[in-house]
C-alpha cells in the first residue's frame, strides 16, 4: 500500500507553509498529497451560522482553496482533501496512521525562539505512529536547493536510531543533499564504569574513538543502501540537543528520533526532540521507533 503525504491545515500562515513543504516532498517522492482539516462544531456568538452543516461547508471550502494553490504550483501532483470531524489530536493522529508522514505548521518568532509547540502539536507527535514534520511560517524553499544538509541525530545502538536514519537518507536521496549524522557524548560518572565497559573502551582506544565507531556502525547499512548520498560523520562531546542545534544553523531539515514517555501530567516527548523543536530555525522531523 502506497501512503500519501498528509498536511494538516487550519488556515494559518504556518499551516500553509507546512502544506507547501508537504507538496514539494510529495513531488520528489512521487507520492500523492492529502490535505486534512480537523473540524469540530463550535457554537459562539461571533460565528454567524449556528448550523453545523454551514460551518463544515466553510471548512471544506477553505481546504479546497488551499489545495488549489498547491495544484496550481504542481499540476501533476495528485491532491485530495478531507475535513475530518472530531478532536484535533485524535483526528490528526488517525490521519497520520494512514500517511507516509504528517506535516504540520508551528508558530515561531525568529531563529532565537524557534517553534512554539502547543499542546495539540505535542500530543500528536507523542501519539502519531508515523513521522511528524513541523514547519513554521516563513520557511524558505530556496534552502532545499542551496546545498544545505539534512542533519540527523544518532544515539544508542544501530537499531535505536534506524528509523530516523532511514528518514534522513530517503529525504537526502530525493533532494540530492548531504546527510550530517550527529552523535553527541558525555563523560559517564565514575561509578558507571565496569570491567566489561572498560575493556570495550580500551579496545576502541578511548571514549571518542568508541563513539565514532558506534556512529559508523549505525550508518553502515544506510551508506550501503544509499551510496549516492554524501555523509558527514559528526561526533562531538556535549548534550545531544545543544550539539544538534549548533550544527543545524545552516540545515534544511533536522531529523530526530522520538523518545516519548508518559508522566503523571500526560505524555511528553524526549528532551532532545523538545529542545530541537523549540529552537531549530528549519523544519524538524520527529520519527517514532519501528
TrEMBL record:
Gene3D superfamilies: HUPs. Coiled coil: none annotated. Residues 1-136, 150-288 form the UspA domain. Transmembrane segments: none annotated. It comes from the Bacteria. Belongs to the universal stress protein A family. This is Universal stress protein. The lineage of its organism: Bacteria, Bacillati, Actinomycetota, Actinomycetes, Kitasatosporales.
Amino acid at each position: 500500500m502506497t501512503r500519501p503525504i498528509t498536511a494538516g491545515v487550519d488556515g494559518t500562515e504556518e499551516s500553509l507553509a507546512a502544506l507547501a513543504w508537504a507538496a514539494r516532498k510529495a513531488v520528489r517522492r512521487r507520492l500523492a498529497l492529502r490535505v486534512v482539516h480537523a473540524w469540530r462544531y463550535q457554537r459562539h456568538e461571533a460565528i454567524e451560522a449556528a448550523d453545523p452543516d454551514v460551518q463544515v461547508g466553510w471548512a471544506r471550502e477553505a481546504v479546497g482553496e488551499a489545495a488549489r494553490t498547491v495544484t496550481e504550483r504542481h499540476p501533476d501532483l495528485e491532491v485530495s482533501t478531507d475535513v475530518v470531524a472530531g478532536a484535533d489530536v485524535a483526528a490528526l493522529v488517525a490521519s497520520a496512521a494512514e500517511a507516509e508522514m504528517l506535516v504540520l505548521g508551528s508558530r515561531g518568532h525568529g531563529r532565537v525562539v524557534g517553534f512554539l509547540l502547543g499542546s495539540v502539536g505535542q500530543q500528536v507527535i507523542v501519539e502519531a505512529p508515523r513521522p511528524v514534520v513541523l514547519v513554521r511560517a516563513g520557511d524558505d524553499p530556496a534552502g532545499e536547493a542551496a546545498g544545505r544538509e539534512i542533519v540527523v541525530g544518532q544515539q544508542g545502538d544501530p537499531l535505536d536510531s534506524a528509523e530516523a536514519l532511514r528518514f534522513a537518507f530517503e529525504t537526502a536521496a530525493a533532494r540530492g543533499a548531504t546527510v550530517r549524522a550527529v552523535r553527541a557524548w558525555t563523560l559517564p560518572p565514575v561509578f558507571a564504569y565496569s570491567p566489561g565497559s572498560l575493556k570495550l573502551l580500551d579496545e576502541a582506544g578511548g571514549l571518542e574513538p568508541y563513539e565514532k565507531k558506534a556512529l559508523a556502525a549505525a550508518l553502515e547499512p544506510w551508506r550501503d543502501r544509499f551510496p549516492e548520498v554524501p555523509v558527514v560523520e559528526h561526533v562531538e562531546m556535549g548534550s545531544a540537543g545543544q550539539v544538534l542545534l549548533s550544527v543545524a544553523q545552516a540545515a534544511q531539515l533536522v531529523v530526530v528520533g522520538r523518545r516519548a514517555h508518559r508522566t503523571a501530567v500526560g505524555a511528553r516527548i524526549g528532551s532532545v526532540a523538545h529542545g530541537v523543536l523549540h529552537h531549530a530555525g528549519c523544519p524538524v522531523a520527529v520519527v517514532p521507533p519501528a
